[in-house]
Write a structure and sequence with these properties.
Layout (H helix, E strand, L loop, with lengths): L1 H25 L41 E4 L6 H14 L40 E2 L7 H7 L5 E6 L2 H11 L2 H13 L4 H10 L15 H5 L10 H14 L2 E4 L3 H12 L26 H10 L1 H21 L2 H20 L5 E4 L8 E4 H7 L3 H21 L8
Parallel strand pairs: 1-2, 1-3, 3-4
Antiparallel strand pairs: 5-6
Helix pairs in contact: 1-12, 2-14, 5-6, 6-10, 8-11, 9-12, 10-11
Amino acid sequence: MRLYLKYATQAVIIIFICTSIWYILDSQPAEHIVHGRDKASSSSAQLQFTSSSKIQRTSRRTSPTKNVVFLKVHKVGGSTLMNLFYRYADSKNLNLMVPIDTEGDHWNYLGFNTTLHPKNIVPLPRGESYNILCNHVLYDKQAFLKIMPNDSVYITILRNPVGQFVSAAMYYNFLSSLEQEARKHIGLQPIPELFHEYFTNRDRYSSVNSYHVRNKMSHDLGLPMSRFDDKVFIERFIQNLTRDYELVMMMEYFTESVILMRRFLLWTLEDVIFIPLNVNMRKKKKNVMMYNDDIDALSEWNYADFQLYKHFEQRYMQQIEAEGPSLQQEVTYFNDVLEKIAAFCASDKELYAVTESEWSKAFDVSKEQCKMMTSDAIPVIKTAIRKSRKRFNTWAMSNDVQVLT
């Protein structure tokens, strides 16, 4: 039995490492989505840790932040972070903003193709305020200020726009719809040729729904679709986001981003432990590639997303630099902790003790936490909705207020 557990634990560790590598590679498109012809160089910058920077190091906070807006952007690793925020709200007994119901189209959004509105969220007892927002909804500063506390910290995460486009094209069936339509014109073709055909003859494919693949990151962050081709407006839009969002994380540097966020919010290491979600390892992956000239065409078509990513990647690198070498040291330690937690979660043990270190006080991880960390987004959201509705209705019945039905 001991021998079995030994090998089982080793297998779990290997699976965790492979999952993490796959998760990272899936977010770095340069080496596996560019076709051999005119292959482009990687756009992912190498992290540099030095002691000098023009950006002030982390924040001036003296206590952990409890009011956070995490704008969940599509296909950028947001499910893992949403899970993290849900767990944080639950552990600190904070008010989580959740959708009003668990039925209907796009029920798991706080607003589908629209911004925040009280009718779409579970209300709170009178006198209380929301602490954490982390579901899909279109960003609109004024709408958010009406509902979230004024001292809320705004955070989001972006992804290289080429990788984000390819991931969204596959997930939202843009690619399959394009393939079906393209057969009428060019017959059955490999994926690189499909993208080439699309960007060469876009007018021919107007019937293929491009909602989820055109400037989707910018649209999630509030850029109107009518302004997708307005470069002057896009520049102002990005400047406004720079003022609103204290931290814009990068999927290509996921673990570094989580540690940077921990420092910005003054949270503990225990608060930000995670196991990657939505990596879809069981789903057969297509070898998706694009020609270099089609990436150039994509950068024009999705101009807003490319400018958005370029701007915030530069700022992110400056924020990383401001942290100095200690951030990479903490990331190295954190990766080791995550690996051991993953092994524990797959074992028969009931509790795992993380010992005190330079980066963290000692804390325990339970099997219940493992279950929460590995839960898919949908059941997590449904559980939070039921809990919030029950809490509001209990208050409403004792205060002569109409209950939620």
